Amino acid sequence: MDKIKTWVEESPYSKYLGIALDEIDDSSARLRLPYQDANSNPGKALHGGCAASLGAIAGQAIARAALGEEAGPFHTAQMQVSYLAAAIGDDVMAEAKLLRRGRELCFVGTDVKTTEGKPIARVMTTIRGRFAREEARSYVSQGDHGESDPGVMGPHIGKVPFIGNRGITVEHMTGGTSRLAMPQLNDNGDASGGVHEGAVLALLDTTGAMASWAESGPGNFKASTASMQIQILGPAPKGDLVAYGRCIQNDNEIYWSDVEVASAADGQVNARGTVLYRIVK
Questions:
Q1: 272, 245, 275: which is closest to 143 by C-alpha?
Q2: Is the pLDDT of residue 1 over 90?
Q3: Are 171 and 180 in contact (CB under 8 A)?
Q4: For residue 85, which of 46, 53, 116 has the smallest C-alpha distance?
Q5: Which domains does the chain have, with CATH numbers?
Q6: Tens digits of per-residue pLDDT, 223-267?
């Protein structure tokens, strides 16, 4: 359990966020994240990428305990995040339970809430242990149209503390499509030397949101991610990442955007998913 606690708390990404592992056994875990401005959107609202990160980290912690370290390397093969409410200037915690353990898969449910008990997010994860198997080569993203127009909002996105601290920049954000880049900064890192899943989730979430804004156009509106469905195709990637977003449908205030996160060097896809975003005009 000491190795798991070290992985949770000393990986550069989770250490930067301030995540602490309070309890862990082979069927449950409790994580804690004190409030800090660096993890927030404007108005001191916890960034959705932080809540998703807590779910992914909690799921992996339980899988490492249930399957054993020899089952690694691990990755979150699938996850569903439902955002229930905003945490405004609050400390939050994640309580995770093992729902089922298979030979190489663990199914984990995690509730993210404030320390006062207000529900913030529900995260369902399927964690895979690769048992030292050689990584499969993932498919290569087809990329996008190659245009580079960050639009009106794009140049300002990096000013949001959590996004700016990831080094995320908007390269394109018009016509219902978005392209965002994220360098392999130390503060985005996993203990393995790659990019932490939490940082990948933050990039995917933000790219989907920007595709939605690129579809709706800018305005003084209220907006937030309602849910995400994500598949991570392998262990922590190494190197800079680029994410491609495309709004595939909008219905009044609801927007669905598909996203691929790929290596900037060779285009191999590390993660893919759909972001359900809400913009209230």
A1: 245
A2: no
A3: yes
A4: 46
A5: 2-129 (3.10.129.10), 154-280 (3.10.129.10)
A6: 999 999 999 999 999 999 999 999 999 999 999 999 999 999 999
